[in-house]
């Protein structure tokens, strides 16, 4: 995604990306035989996210989400599934740290190509209430990574 130099154009592009993920969420749905399943709520906004993932040893082979709530929470979940699928657990954990930096307002993270579409949420850092919306899916991911493969290797 080429970044326009004009901040207003970039903002419009980012808004468009967020709405695109909200209206056409990627990897939304149930996942049969999930190795981990975590449901979290953000009571401040009413967002709900459930993350289900499947692992083959150390690799996240599939990840899906269900949920409802504001466009920030749902688009962040959609973007999360795209970024995490196929990653190893250490890679996913590195991604989690990078996302925390992004939502903490890091200008460096905001231009990190490894974050893909998620960079569209960089502006959320200025709004603490919205950060909780954007972080919800990632908190669910973090918890689901802690659930071991439950012996299903
Ligand atoms: Zn929200």
Describe the structure.
By secondary structure, this protein is of the alpha+beta class. The protein has one domain (7-147): Sufe protein. Chain: A. The radius of gyration is 15 Å and the shape is globular. The protein contains 4 helices and 3 strands. α1 (7-23) packs across α2 (71-84) and α3 (89-103) runs antiparallel to α4 (128-146). Helices cover 42% and strands 18% of the residues. β1 and β2 form a beta hairpin. Bound molecules: zinc ion. Zinc ion binds at residues 42, 45, 47, 69-70, 72-73, 133.
Number of H/I helices: 4
Q: Which bin fits the share of residues in helices?
A: 40-55%
Radius of gyration: 15 Å
Total domains? 1
Oligomer: single chain
Trace the largest sheet across and list its strands.
Answer: 1-2-3
Using the coordinates shown, work out and report the CATH topology: Sufe protein. Chain: A
The end-to-end distance, rounded to whole angstroms, is 37 Å
- Give me the secondary-structure category: alpha+beta
Based on the coordinates given, report the CATH architecture. Answer: Alpha-Beta Complex
Model regions low in confidence, pLDDT < 50 over at least 5 residues: none
Using DSSP, what is the number of strands?
3
Apparent shape: globular
Task: Please outline the major beta sheet.
Answer: 3 strands, antiparallel
Q: What is the average of the pLDDT values?
A: 93
Sequence of secondary-structure elements? HEEEHHH
CATH class: Alpha Beta
* Percent of residues in β-strands: 15-25%
């Amino acid at each position: 995604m080429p970044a326009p130099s004009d901040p207003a154009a970039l903002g419009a592009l980012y808004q468009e990306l967020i709405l695109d993920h909200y209206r056409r969420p990627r990897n939304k749905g149930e996942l049969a035989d999930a190795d981990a399943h975590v449901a979290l709520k953000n009571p401040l906004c009413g967002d709900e996210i459930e993350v289900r993932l499947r692992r083959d040893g150390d690799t996240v082979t599939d990840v899906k989400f269900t949920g409802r709530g504001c466009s920030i929470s749902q688009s962040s979940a959609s973007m999360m599934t795209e970024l995490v699928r196929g990653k190893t657990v250490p890679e996913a954990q590195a991604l989690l740290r990078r996302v925390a930096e992004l939502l903490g307002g890091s200008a460096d993270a905001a231009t990190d190509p490894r974050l893909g579409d998620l960079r569209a949420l960089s502006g959320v850092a200025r709004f603490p209430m919205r950060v909780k919306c954007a972080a919800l899916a990632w908190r669910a991911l973090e918890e689901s990574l802690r659930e071991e493969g439950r012996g299903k290797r």
